[in-house]
Specification:
By secondary structure, the chain is an all-beta fold. It contains no helices and eight strands. The mean pLDDT is 90. The structure holds zinc ion. Residues 8, 10-11, 13, 22, 24-25, 27 line the site of zinc ion (ZN).
Length: 117
């Protein structure tokens, strides 16, 4: 499973999350004009920029705390994901995979979870 970015067909810049205009060339890439961008899988490896530990979660989480990190992917995009790393260090190499991050009744939520690379 992958997370996809939006590649501007005019200049090739990959955006994540979606933007209405290209951050490099300014071209409009409206969501209903799928011919103006191409979905491309984002890199799953990168470097941990920062992280935080959440301890006051809503009652339907069945874990006592969550680690969330911002990762600079090797393709240049930044992404927020959970960390499955007991003692994270800033700048460490990480590798992500898509996992179930929350089960809410019949709704299954998937997201990217990073481990030490
Ligand atoms: Zn562009």
């Amino acid at each position: 499973m992958n997370i996809y970015g939006y590649k501007c067909k005019k200049c090739g810049t990959v955006h994540y999350p979606f933007r209405t205009t290209c951050k490099k060339c300014g071209a409009f890439i409206f969501e209903d004009k799928a011919d103006r961008y191409q979905l491309v899988p984002l890199s799953k490896e990168g470097k941990l920029l920062t992280f935080t530990r959440l301890r006051s979660l809503p009652g339907d989480f069945d874990v006592p705390e969550l680690l969330l990190g911002i990762v600079q992917l090797d393709d240049g995009n930044r992404i927020t994901g959970q960390l499955d790393i007991p003692a994270p260090k800033l700048g460490m190499k990480v590798k992500g995979e898509i996992r179930v991050v929350r089960q809410e009744g019949y709704n299954t939520h998937r997201g990217i979870v990073f481990e030490a690379a």
